[in-house]
Amino acid sequence: MKTPGLDYYRRVKTGLAATYAKYGIVPPGGSGLNVCMCRDIYARRDSILSR
């Protein structure tokens, strides 16, 4: 299995930001890698989508 490249994570970031903005979803709190990534994207969703 090949590790995903940077482009993959950029698309995930943009896709999650769009989903959070469109549906008003709030990611779960707590701890862990995915939670941290989701919280960062959620907090910066408007900035991410304006690019």
Describe the structure.
The chain is mainly alpha-helical and 51 residues long. The chain contains 3 helices and no strands. It has one domain. The model has no long low-confidence stretch (mean pLDDT 91). It has helices spanning 6-23, 33-43, 45-49.
Distance between the termini: 31 Å
Give the tally of structural domains.
1
Shape: globular
Give the amount of beta strand, in percent. Answer: under 5%
Q: Major sheet: size, sense and barrel closure? A: none
In N-to-C order, the SSE pattern is HHH
**Unreliable residue stretches:** none
Q: Kindly state the mean pLDDT as a whole number?
A: 91
Rounded to the nearest angstrom, the radius of gyration is: 11 Å
What share of the residues lie within helices?
A: 55-70%
Number of strands: 0
- The oligomeric state of the chains shown is single chain
Structural class by secondary-structure content: mainly alpha
Specify the number of helices: 3
Concise overview:
The chain is mostly helical and 51 residues long.
What is the element layout, followed by pairings?
Blueprint (H helix, E strand, L loop, with lengths): L5 H18 L9 H11 L1 H5 L2
List the defining traits of the structure above.
mainly alpha, 51 residues
